[in-house]
Amino acid sequence: MRGGGVRALSAVARGVTGASSSPGARSRWPVTRSTTANPGAYLSSTRTPQASGCGSASSSARALYSTQRETKSETPPSFAFAFDIDGVLLHVAKPIPGAAKTLRYLQDHNIPFILLTNGGGKLEAERVKDLSSKLGVHLTTENFVQSHTPFRQLVEGGDGEENSLRDKTILVTGADAAKCRDIAESYGFKNVITPADILFAHPSVFPFDPLLESVYASTHRALPKPIYAPGGGRSLTNSLKIDAMFVFNDPRDWALDIQVIADLLLSHAGYLGTYSSKNADPSLPACGWQQDGQPPLYFSNADLFWSTGFHLPRFGQGAFQAAVAGVWRRITGGHELQRRAIGKPYGETYRFAELVLGAHRHEILRTQGYHEPPGTLRSVYMVGDNPESDIAGANEYASEVGTEWCSVLVRTGVWSPERGGQEVLKGRLEPKVVVDDVEAAVRWALEREGWKM
Ligand SMILES: [Mg+2]
User: Fold this and answer.
1) What is the 23 CA–ligand 1 centroid distance (Å)?
2) Are residues 395 and 295 in the same domain?
3) Which range has the top average pLDDT, 74-78, 104-108, 232-236?
4) Structural domain harbouring 453
């Protein structure tokens, strides 16, 4: 079902926006919805007054759940939470103290929340099952958004089916490209190929073969059409055409992936094996680079580094993106790679999260017997550990329905006064408040909302 209150945003299907645009810029993604809730119906309803401005965290050390006061509210909460996972709920797969009981408290009191992570590479259902097991809290995919989850919007396209990628051919890659294919197919993409498919069908695409048998042979599928070869007697329309490229999570084999992506960025209209006659034409915009119907390139996560079990941060998908852009600059003599990046801190991901959260909240209210829209979702508290993604994203996101996104930084993850320091928390990276952990974050927000604990 397509959301009635969501604008048609077809520009994304043309894939023309560079990742250099402001992360908080309004989304230009087409949006469709798979739930039965109608965001336009209740998100546009009467707004309730804003709470007073964000202040500093309460110095009270009392526990969130220490009181026995009745928490039943006459009206449902007009606020909700968005939690990052790594560094907020988990640290290297282990629950952070207070995280589980905090989520249970919110569930018990019908206060909506979503989990919003830049992680990916697994089916949402698998990830949620794993997370539920680690935290000991029952969670569902209904309120879960990982880095590539917004890609599912592109199955339907924008307002018109002409932008739908459902039946188009897309290339996906990631840490485990075969797994990424499974995820893409679960979203509804019907024709998904991986670099392994291309390499297996045409080994000379990448003339370094040690991994061909040991890695790629086991995961490849037959290409839907052969790769174009000049003089081969095959017409273009009977050759493989890629309509979009998706980086689902952090690729392992950068060399093969960059080669295939560059081939398609240089092609005529996505026909692998062709070379656009517009490339390097100085009479054309951008000297003709990416001006010939090449497939748009999507990245799901801009994080340059991420925190792992090693004592120093490791490269994330942002490093791969930088590598692709660097090679592209060398190929084109300095032109910037046109690509689309989502994930935190980009506004597209926050807008998608807001829709998911709105639908989840709607469902909670419905099960409580609120059949009429009770009011706008007034505030969302984004609780995260990373100023560059969680905090900057919440600060810069401009909700189209007027929802306030209030950034709350915790000390249990990548940032701490010792690592990063207070001085970096300025401008777009300045949270509304800094607290010790997720439990303190929720306590601060509930106090701010006047919620009786
Ligand atoms: Mg984190």
Assistant:
1) 18
2) no
3) 104-108
4) 87-147+349-453
